[in-house]
Amino acid sequence: MIDLLQVTALNIKTHIGVHAWEQKILQTVVLDIEIKLNISDCNDKLENTIDYFKLCESVTNHVASNSYTLIETLAEDVAKFIKNEFNLTEITISVSKPNAIKNAGNIKVTIIR
């Protein structure tokens, strides 16, 4: 059985962009995180699952304390970070930069690692 833990629309401010001026300001990126796990044996105990508060807090701190040129690089970095931090074999990460293009509602990449 495969269950999913999904964190959607995790808003984080960080330095991101290809232009020098973008690296001088904080911009919002939006992360969606999807983790496959088996929660049938959770038994209503936090230690038998993933602490999503800790997940969100650690990802927010990690992204906020780094700078990136591309959302693709950010996605790859976050996937590696979460896999190492929570001992996971597979994760899906989507990173959006909603204000990247003036006449586009959103720019988004999704990776599965």
Outline the structure in words.
- This protein is α+β, with helices and mostly antiparallel strands and 113 residues long.
- The chain has one domain (3-112): GTP cyclohydrolase I, C-terminal domain/NADPH-dependent 7-cyano-7-deazaguanine reductase, N-terminal domain (GTP Cyclohydrolase I, domain 2), CATH 3.30.1130.10.
- The chain is built from 2 helices and 5 strands, in the order E-E-H-E-H-E-E.
- Strands 3-1-2-4-5 form a 5-stranded mixed β-sheet.
- The protein starts with a strand and ends with a strand.
- The model has no long low-confidence stretch (mean pLDDT 96).
What distance lies between the first and last C-alpha atoms, to the nearest angstrom?
A: 20 Å
Output the helix-strand order. Answer: EEHEHEE
Count of individual domains: 1
Mean pLDDT: 96
Contiguous runs where pLDDT drops below 50 for at least 5 residues? none
Secondary-structure class: alpha+beta
> Which strand-content bin applies to the residues?
25-35%
Instruction: Give the tally of β-strands.
Output: 5
Biggest sheet: strand arrangement: 3-1-2-4-5
